[in-house]
Design brief:
alpha/beta; 2 domains; seven-stranded mixed β-sheet; 13 helices
Length: 400
């Protein structure tokens, strides 16, 4: 049986609530690795052990753990008896096929009943390694770090740490609904909330059949990528093309973009409340496009009573692009498409819209009826990982 030791960082600061966060992370690890021959996932002293049957799945297991929120780092490990001789023998066995110039030993003694202190363990195991292999000890910049962790009646030895994504386990911070455009920004905004422990519902506004369904295909692919991190995603596809036609007939050109955004926010709020979301999320950054000036954002924000979270609000485009590349959504987001943002867009949109003027323009629209119809006819897709189900729900509607 192979072992992987998983460490968390931020969860360790949660005090009395820590056990609940750890339980959720354990549950998420079980779900994320359910098809990889994992025999057991259990919480230990300040860490989690994952036991799996074969080393053949290590590459895929490593990829899944690396992208799962809540994990600071993890390592393939070998279990040893609670005895310094057994620990040293286990370490030497793991080093048989390695050749390095320098090393150090780092020990953590979580169980203080062990008769040696951490520095004593380091010196003893390090001395035996030096005697057996002749390697040079380097405490500052070693080529190899050997780690020993002493727990309750057992010890673990490991050689390499794999970085995790950090943050909090998905599902510990409630639900939010993210307006997902299919561009570069909104997937990054969604992921930032996933990493903070939120379960993110995605809402995409499209103009099919007036425009092609490319934007829907892109968002479905992005949703699958995000599902690999939060394990459970609900995607809503909202037909917006006919709504834009109504806006074009009733609203002066400079105000149309602001009105589009206000209607989207109202519809997203309606869907979000129906699926239990506590806040809305957007990928807006101040000054990036015409609708994202402070004046316009204030006018747009005024139509909802739900909190609107903008995790990218102070970032520049290069920063967002870097995060999208790391997330893996960038290559999908830059695929050319036709979405509702490109349909009926005026040449000179207002950048400092006033609430009173926009309210007067919207008076020509049946806003409540538009919002209700768009929300209740939205197409819903549920996705799971590792068993992703991306088929449209046969029922329309927003419940759940």
């Amino acid at each position: 049986m192979q072992s992987v030791i998983v460490h968390y960082q931020e969860i360790a600061l949660k005090g009395r609530n820590r056990s609940w966060f750890v339980e959720r992370l354990v549950s998420n690890i079980r779900a994320a690795t359910a098809d990889l021959g994992v025999a057991k996932v259990r919480a230990l002293m300040g860490r989690i052990e994952l036991q799996h049957e074969s080393a053949d799945d290590w590459s895929e297991l490593r990829a899944r753990l690396a992208r799962l929120p809540g994990i600071a780092n993890f390592s393939r490990a070998v279990r040893s008896r609670w005895d310094i001789d057994a620990i040293a023998d286990t370490v030497l066995g793991e080093l048989e096929e390695l050749q390095v110039e320098s090393f150090r030993v780092r020990a953590q003694r979580a169980d203080k009943r062990f008769p040696m202190t951490s520095p004593q363990i380091e010196r003893e195991v390090g001395g035996r390694i030096k005697a057996a292999r002749g390697w040079r000890v380097d405490l500052e910049r070693p080529e190899l770090t050997v780690r020993v962790e002493i727990l309750n009646d057992e010890a673990f030895c490991h050689l390499r740490k794999e970085p995790g994504s950090g943050g909090l386990p998905s599902g510990v911070s409630g639900r939010v609904a993210c307006l997902m455009s299919g561009g570069i920004d909104s997937p990054v905004a969604a992921y930032r909330l996933i990493k903070r422990g939120c379960r993110v519902r995605l809402i995409h506004f499209h103009s099919y059949p007036i425009l092609s369904h490319t934007s829907q295909d892109k968002v479905a692919e992005i949703a699958e990528l995000l599902t690999r991190r939060q394990l459970d995603t609900r995607l809503y596809l909202v037909a917006f093309g006919e709504i834009q036609r109504k806006v074009v007939l009733a609203v002066p050109p400079p105000l149309r973009v602001v009105v589009y955004r206000r209607l989207m926010l109202r519809i997203a709020e309606r869907i979000g409340r129906a699926c239990g979301a506590m806040a809305l999320v957007t990928g807006e950054a101040v000054g990036q496009v015409a609708s994202q000036t402070l004046e316009n954002m204030a006018v747009i924000n005024s139509v909802t009573s739900m909190p609107v979270l903008r995790p990218l609000v102070g970032m520049d485009k290069e920063e967002i692009v870097r995060e999208a590349q790391q997330l893996g959504t960038y290559e999908v987001s830059i695929v050319p498409d036709e979405d509702c943002c490109t349909l009926f867009t005026p040449k000179h949109p207002a950048t400092k819209a006033r609430a009173r003027v926009v309210d007067e323009a919207e008076a020509a629209l049946e806003v409540d009826a538009i919002v209700e119809e768009a929300a209740t006819t939205a197409e819903r897709r549920d996705l799971r990982f590792p068993s992703i189900v991306a088929q449209p729900d046969k029922r329309s509607g927003t419940s759940g």
